[in-house]
Fold TonB-dependent receptor.
Amino acid sequence: MNAEIQFKRKLLPACMALATLSFGLQAFAQEKADDTAVTEVTVTGSRIVSSSFTQPTPTTSMTVEDIQKSAQPNVFAAIAQLPSLQGSASTQAMTYSTSSGLQGLSSFGLRGLGTIRTLTLLDGQRVVGANVTGVTDVSQFPQLLIKSVDVVTGGASASYGSDAVGGVVNFITDKRFEGVKGNIQAGQSTYADNEGVLGQIAWGGSFMDDRLHIQLSGEHGKEDGIPPGDFGLEGPGGRDWYTGAEIANRQISETTDGKPQRYLIDRAQNNQYAKYGLITAGPLKGIAFGENGEPYQFQYGKNCISNLCEGGDLSGLNSGGKSLASAIERNVGYARIGFDVDENNEIYATINKARVTSVNYPILGAAKNANLTMQCDNPYLPASVKAACAANNITSFQYGTVNAQIEPRQNVHPVREQERIVVGANGKFSAFDTDWSYDTYYQYGRNVTDLKVHDIMLNNRYNAAIDAVAGPNGTIVCRNTAARAAGCVPMNIFGNVAPSAASYAYVFPENGPHQHSPQMQNVASFNISGEPFSSWAGPIGIATGLEYRKEQYIVTGDPYGNGNRPESPNNADYPADPVLTNPIGNHWFAGNYHWAKGEYDVKEAYLEANVPILDSDTMGEANVNMAVRGTDYSTAGNVDTWKLGATWKTPVSGLRFRAVSSKDVRAPNLSELFAAEVVINGTVNYNGTNITVQQRTVGNPDLRVEEARNNEFGIVLSQPDWAPGLSLSFDYFDIKVDDVIGTLGAQQEVDLCKEGNQDLCKAMLLTSTVPNTNYVRLQPFNLATMHTKGYDIEASYRMTIGDGTLTLRALGTHNISFITESGLPNTIPTDAAGVNVGSTPDWKVMAVQSWDTDKWGVSLTEHWISDGVFNNEVIVCQTGCPVSTVTHPTAAFNHMDGTLRFDLGANYKLTDNFTLYGKIDNLLNKDPAVSPGTGTVANPMIYDLIGRMYRVGLRFQF
């Protein structure tokens, strides 16, 4: 039986069940006369178009007025402030990264489940991914024509398909806009950085007796970002909250003394290197090098733990040398042409073209942590140190340096270019005594990402260049003769001596790491909804549809990163070099991009029904909403998803209950399935024997889908008679994701294989007697489980006072728990709720108070994050500590301050057409808590790293 037949057979029973229920209810139906004309509405959490349907899945909406009051240069930043959005990627995230490809990407994450488990739509349609993980970049969306954004905070896979595990974010554009409108904005932080400008304009018109509708928009936005600080304790932009904090770990075996394993050290010194070089071992240990290569005695800090000390010589501290925010430039053009075939049916086409570039500085210098062996005959070495070598009868010494003398600094330049074309039709028709609504479209999307890294070293060339010897006629040359013949130019790394232009060009070639990755998406979709039947309680709404989707990508890396492989580009800019002979590449300090390609397609069909079951003056109104979707992935096979929900509008004025349970899925993405193979040598212990193996890191085309069970229950009080401007809601959520995809280490795979995991046993060969043939494939597998619980609270009150309107609104999300089970032996479940170095704080709250008149308005916004911890599994103690363990380490600290920030905004209508506005974000310049261990100096997933930010702008509309 082929996959298509299996797919149809799985879907058919569910479709028949819904149809049978609908016909059964129709048999008991009673006609209800209603002469009131009600406009049909579409709710993002459902595919049903109905005048009476209240969906059970909680949805938070932001109107264009809300977005305008936020006054952000990118609508992404306005939406990401919502409490349920946790773990989103932004220009402040991944700034410390060279190789990830995520720098400057703006993608939403819901519930802390990751951006790959949040589905972002444009007018209910998928958008081609801007990264090999499949996530979209909201910076590429047309933003001035957005009229609202719906955030569905619950599983929606049965309605929208894969990835909607945490929920859906849907941008809805104005398809009937007429006139001209625009927005001009400028901004700057209180630290005189992150300067930005934004220009947006849109035009819309109707022609041919209002049958032809055209909308055009274009925008240019630029934010300069926040460049890194300098060596030492100078924070980025002079921000004085940077303390150079690090977490120091003792060995577990050392914790029998009753003291903690982990300590938090401010002004932490790494004693494995100095700013311009340090001898780290042997009789010459402690000799450092300064201006013009002069040696001096290094000042070690105190209270040293492992290689970290408190204080001392901090001139080589480089952890503040990372961008706090990537620079970003957006250029987006959009056009929509719609033609009304008749008063009920439209055909249309949209074209979107976007180019988003960004820049970040992920690191200062290029630290070599005591892993260099320098020869005493190096001619760049000062005579006094050569003499000390001779006096101590040594010919070499261990050496560490942060290479602070190297300028300019490593910088990463991602460029994402998107082109997206959609053609479709929507409208209404009558059949079988029923009015039906339909929409159908075909989309072609292509995103090309180019990642280029500049001013980064080739490790092997660096090693060859710093190993210098005396040449003929007083010259200095590279010791390696093959490297010398291929152009090696010696480099002096003893002290603050700038490298020669020739040596810099050799070690840091102009053509750095380069990755080129086109990603294509084709989607064909047809959806129809109507109310063909009626129950005793009202019309039964149904929606059904079909969708086909194909995803493809190709990734090529430069030869120095990808290695000498058949797929490597034959590029004269990367000439052959005898010191760059590793066949798998990996020669760069970072940014070793590899070749890969892959594709998959998806066939889907769904059926959704909304069945009123109660309409009574004494009991109220109730409806049941249910949906089922059958999906056939060419890679992961067949999977079913479903949703069952209900709402009850009680007889009590404004009081309503809602509940929904769903099975949702995320299919493995292109990167997880088809990542390029990278091979390194390693060892594993198998049956008590250490075995040399090839560690082959590669994608896994046999991955299964992740399956989630999503349960939600809510209480809503909306506009009761006794308080017509009041709305309150409480929604409890419980989401468990099984078969979570993750990658293991080689030894972990071997241990799990020995415990009986046959999938992992297939990924290795450990018994070969032929040299260099044993291997372990490091692939992603479906092993882990995530389980999160919590609740959302939303409250709003609106009232008219005099000639103005007062609006109060507050939204909050409380994470009760976020348990992850790795599926690995000798591990325990971990709880990330309240861990403020992650993305799921105990509480995230946003509150807005605004006063608006016909002429002016003012708003105050509060953003509160509760206090948190570094780790929920640590045992906090100062003395008398138990022996630390892997699962429960001891620590002298475990507290992170939360934050309360205020934003102040105002607008003034100069004329009917022009509105002047201003905004101050982080009004009191609240500092973030330092977050060592997160890769950057503070955690951008929770805290604001920019500080006080000023923006002014002018909007106009004619």
Summary: The mean pLDDT is 90. Residues 3-27 form the longest helix (25 residues).
